[in-house]
Amino acid sequence: MFKSDNSLNLRDVVRKCENEQEFIIYGAASIANILYIYLENIGLADKISYFVVSEMNTNRKYLHGKKIFEYNSVKDKLNNSLIIIATQNIISGDIRRFLLDNGCSKVLNIDSDGIVEALYNREYRNKIENDKVLVLNMNGNGFGCNPKYIVEELIKRENRNLDIVWAVSENNYKFPDYVRHVKIGSKEFYHEVATAKVLINNTRMTSDIRKRHGQFYLQTWHGAAPIKKVEADVEDKLPSYYINNAKKDSNMADLVISGSEFYTNLYKTKFWYDGEILKSGLPRQDILFRSNDVVNKVRGFYKIKPEYKIVLYAPTFRNEFSNKAYDLDIDNVVSELEIKFGSKFICFVSKHPNNINVDYCFTTKNYIDVCKYDDFEEILATADVLITDYSGCMYDFSFTGRPIFLYQPDYDDYLFERNFYISMDELPYSRAKSNIELVNKIESFDFEIYKAKLEAFMKEQKNYDDGHASEKVADYILNNWINV
Hints:
By secondary structure, the protein is α/β, with parallel strands linked by helices. It has 17 helices and 20 strands.
C-alpha cells in the first residue's frame, strides 16, 4: 500500500514517545484514534498534549478528552514539540513536508497500515461469531436507511437470536430491544468489527476497518437517484484519501444491492467494483409502497393535527459547509401551498447528516426540526409535499407520486462542483432558483401534468423496487452467509 517517506513502525514510534515528557498528535480521525487506544494500553496516552488538524471542518473539539486544535491557532507552539502524524499514509507525507517547511523539526510519521494491522492482529485472536451482524448507517447515525429494513427482516425471518450490533457516533439514539449499539472508535467497536460474521454499511468503510477471512460485507450504499455525479465520475473533485478508501471498500465488498438498471451499470463502471450485484430494489423504499402505519407513527410523534398536511424541506449537503443556499422562505411557501392545495400546512426541516451543524438562513421559526428523528425514510414517507435541491431523496419520494419542488438558489455553483447525469430540465419536478420563483411554481403547479411526466421518468430508469426488497436481501444473507 501507500507508505509515506520517513514513516516509522509502531515500535519505533513508541520508543520516541517514551523518551519525551509530552508530544502532540497531528490528526484526529480513525488513525489518530487507534494510536491513542494503543498508547493508552501501554500507559503513554497521558503524555499527549493535544491533537492538531489542518482544518476544523466539524464541531468536534475533543478526542478522548484531549483538545483538538486547528493548525493555524497553535502553529507558533509546535516548533520545538515532538509531533506524531497519525493520518492515512497517502496524505501523511504531504503533512510532514508542510510541517518541516514551517519550522517544525521533530516530526514523525507513523505507518497507518501498520498500526491498524497491529490492532486487528490482537482482535483476530477472537473467533468470528456466526450469528453476529455489525451495522453502520451514514457514518454513525441511528436506526435507519437500508440497513434498518434489512435488519428488521432478518429478525422477522430468522428463528434463532441474531446478535445485531449497530455502530453509532453518539449514544443518544433509540433502538429496538434486539439491537445492541457500540460507539464508533471505541475499543469495543474494533472487537465487534473483528468478530462479526456479517458487516453491513451504506457509506464507504473508513481506513480503520478490515475484513478478515470468513466475514462477509454487504454494501447497501445510500444513493438511488440518477442525479448527482458520484465516485469515479467526480474523481478530480474528491480528496485522495477518499478515493483510496473507496477502492478499498469496493475490494472488501462481497455484495452490492441495486435499486435500478441505472445504478447497476454505475456500480460496474464508476464504483471501482467488479463483484456481485443483487438486483433487489432498495429495502428502505419498501415502506413507500405501504406507508399508512408509518405516517400515523410520525404524525403522532410530532403531534401533528389531522387537518394539517406536511411539507418537508430536505436539501443536500454543501462541501464548504456554507449556509447561503439554505434560505427557503418558509412562511411564504407554506402560505402558497395552503392556497394551492386547500389545506393547512406545517413545515418539517431535515438537514443532511454532513451539514447537521450548519445554521440555515431562515427568517422564521415556524417549522419543526426533524433532524434528530432516527429514520429519515419514515419522515419522507409521511410528507405530503417535498422541497429539496439536488438530493437523491427526490427519487425516493417519487415512488409516492406526491408533488416535488426543487429549490436551487446556487444552481450554477453546484453544477460546476458536481454536475449531473441527467439535466435538471429533463426531470419531471418543478424547479426554482429564487423564493419568488418557487412560490410562482407552486401557484402554477398542475398535478395531472406532473403525474404523467413522473410516471414516464420512473419507467425510463428501469427500477427494481416492488416493496419486497428487504425480503430479497434478507434471504440472500441467511441462505448464503449465515445458515451455511
